Amino acid sequence: MLRDPNPIHLDPQAVKAKGLGDRVINQGPANLAYVIAMLQTAFPQARICSLDVRYLDNVFAGDTVEAGAKVVSVTGDNSARITCELWLNIQTRGPAIQGSAVLELPG
Amino acid sequence: MNSQQVPPPPQVAGRSLSGDAPYTISVDDNRRVCRLAGVAPAEDGCAHPIFFYIATQVGMGMTVAGLCEVCEFDVNKGPLMAANRVQFSSPLQVATPYQIRGEILSLTRKASRKLGLMDLLEYQLRLHGADGRMVLSTNNTWVLPRGVPA
């Protein structure tokens, strides 16, 4: 769907050639989609206003990841604006994604 | 290699990344993405927010390989996604044509202990509805590892 021919997403041999092991690497947007799903599950009525994320590590085929967020501020009168810190952590290795999001809850 | 020996990167700032054809998020594609992400498609016709990346990337009138080529980088060497900053003015909708406009903001060369010589590519893509209003703007940053030891 992304029309991305980067072989590290498709071919374990390409990953091996880069000295990164022998498992294909998940595309960054796929990892971010897990984070978005977490936000949508936590705030099913909210609209995402912004996302600001950094990609810190690769997620390899077979990795277990966990998406999470922490609310750091809530503002607004008629409709609430929620700012969250967010992350996608790889089990045993640490963060794959870190960043923040602003969501708007209807009044 | 010290900073005085680092050759400059290609001069690509300002290069247009605007698609000729509109991009439409199909119901089927949205359903597939939602299934992969583990959520149900919205009942109100809103598309999964990750289409901020998919729609702009595919609709920018240049392939990933083409964008790498503009930066004189071989896509087979593996560009790395570094960051996204997206602002939504309104939710994305399925079955709605969007026009993509954008440009390369910068290509900055750095010497990294881990990656050797690398370029940071930052580009902005904006999604406009049929009425011309901007629905979202995203700044994307990639790392292009040049593979020359620092």
Number of E-type strands of chain A: 4
Would you tell me the structural class of the helices and strands of chain B? alpha+beta
Number of strands of chain B: 5
What gross morphology of chain A would you assign? elongated
The secondary-structure element order of chain B is EHHHEEEE
Helix proportion range of chain A: 10-25%
Biggest β-sheet: strands ordered side by side in the sheet of chain B: 1-3-4-5-2
Task: Give the mean pLDDT of chain A.
Answer: 91
What pattern of helices and strands is seen along the backbone of chain A? HHEEEE
Strand order of the largest sheet of chain A: 1-4-3-2
Radius of gyration of chain B: 17 Å
The CATH homologous superfamily of chain A is named: Hotdog Thioesterase
Query: What's the CATH class label of chain B?
Result: Alpha Beta
Alpha-carbon distance between the termini of chain B? 5 Å
- Number of helical segments with 4 or more residues of chain A: 2
The dominant shape of chain B is: elongated
CATH architectural category of chain B: Roll
Topology:
The complex is a heterodimer of chains A (107) and B (150).
Chain A: H1 12-17, H2 28-42, E1 47-55, E2 65-75, E3 80-90, E4 94-105
Chain B: E1 23-24, H1 27-37, H2 51-59, H3 64-70, E2 80-88, E3 97-112, E4 116-128, E5 134-145
Antiparallel strand pairs in B: 1-3, 2-5, 3-4, 4-5
Explained architecture:
The complex is a heterodimer of chains A (107) and B (150). Chain A has 107 residues and is of the alpha+beta class. Chain A has a single domain, classed as Thiol Ester Dehydrase, Chain A (Roll). Helices cover 20% and strands 40% of the residues of chain A. Chain A has a four-stranded antiparallel β-sheet with strand order 1-4-3-2. In chain A, a hairpin with a 3-residue loop joins strand 3 (80-90) and strand 4. The longest helix of chain A has 15 residues, at 28-42. With 150 residues, chain B is an alpha+beta fold. Chain B has one domain (23-145): Roll (Thiol Ester Dehydrase, Chain A). Helices cover 18% and strands 35% of the residues of chain B. Chain B has helices spanning 27-37, 51-59, 64-70; strands spanning 23-24, 80-88, 97-112, 116-128, 134-145. Chain B has a five-stranded antiparallel β-sheet with strand order 1-3-4-5-2. In chain B, a hairpin with a 5-residue loop joins strand 4 and strand 5. The model of chain B has no long low-confidence stretch (mean pLDDT 91). Chains A and B meet through helix 2 and strand 1 of A and helix 1, helix 2 and strand 2 of B.
